[in-house]
């Protein structure tokens, strides 16, 4: 029997920068991720290349089921609408739609994508400040819920519905002080200064606008559940004011998105997995505010939610390969991996979790992780205690399901394959890696 000789690792002397020991002593062996939903990381990379985005249908479904349970056990009528800009890959949207989610879109492009996926127009919530005449016409013709952002859009809709001789289903987006600063007052109509009430009155007066609901989206990664209680209470006040003045009950109140995911924000002391409120805590705050408001229980509106990142972040992984180990001139350890910030927009906000795919070395050292771009800003982690790795080692970056495969850039390199592991444990490519043809197809040369 031959024994494989273990590889030599050069010893290093480290200044301890990991902070003081906790009550459990110095950190123990770091976690590693060898497989995703039963498929080895090495097998995934061998078949689909590196870097590689991998999504878990199982995780999407369990997360969505948890969110639904939290709200549906506390409130009689709940409807989620999947936030397309958070992740609009067809296969991902389809998982949510198959589970009963409507679509929440913020552009004509996203609206068309939802329609092409077979979503009924009446189950599309159309948000955002950018809606062209063509977009609004499409939305009116499909009987979508148009969430009006500003007075110019309101007047345009009045003009358009007259011209088309059609009624539009509308809601307004309301912005308000919920104790979260800076306040997102650039979207929608303000609650405190009476603008929202003014918009509501103008809509009630317009012949061909059917006011069906009220919407707010107070911000993103909101860790204070109390902010949602304030938002729900303020929408409930408007809902009752509409009833008092017009003897009319709206169909829904839409509390938007913004629930925090378990990612860790840069500069935060505790890991996000410890500080992020559960769906139960958000549901408790919102349902409390609605059911104990002035609204009679028999007239409670449907509660719409447009949760994005909290529903998908955990389901996405980015697999990557170590290209090089490098000592910086200061002696600091760094390494270069084959996935950069062009694929990881959220690395600007989060200290993303990066792990080895095998138990790895016992030597852990503070490390800077660089992406492969020829750009100084391409830093995936500026400081992470990381085991020593070798060129070719495969790593896993977790919680990258939200906003990365929509905000990624084709820059210097091609965008990689995206794979979905379905609930039955099979992997499928849901977006093919780009190639020269993908890029050149959009270009044209000027013939001389
Ligand atoms: C982006 C967005 C969402 C989703 O926000 P998350 O913070 O990802 O939950 C929901 N509604 C609107 C209007 C949005 O713009």
Round the Cα radius of gyration to an integer and report it: 25 Å
Got a strand count? 20
Number of helices: 13
The CATH homologous superfamily of the largest domain is termed Alanine racemase
**How many separate structural domains?**
2
- Structural classification: alpha/beta
Biggest sheet overview: 9 strands, mixed
Text of the CATH class of the largest domain: Alpha Beta
CATH fold naming of the largest domain: TIM Barrel
Report helical residue fraction. 25-40%
Shape: globular
The whole-number mean of residue pLDDT values reads: 95
Q: Which range does the strand content fall in? A: 15-25%
**Can you tell me the CATH architecture of the largest domain?**
Alpha-Beta Barrel
Tell me the distance between the termini: 70 Å
Low-confidence stretches: none
Which molecules other than protein and nucleic acid are bound? Answer: pyridoxal-5'-phosphate
Task: Provide a descriptive summary of the structure in words.
With 448 residues, the protein is an alpha/beta fold. The chain has two domains: 35-54 and 315-434, Lyase, Ornithine Decarboxylase, Chain A, domain 1; 57-313, TIM Barrel (Alpha-Beta Barrel). It has 13 helices and 20 strands. The mean pLDDT is 95. Pyridoxal-5'-phosphate is lined by residues 83, 85-86, 104, 106, 127, 217, 220, 256-259, 306-310, 402.
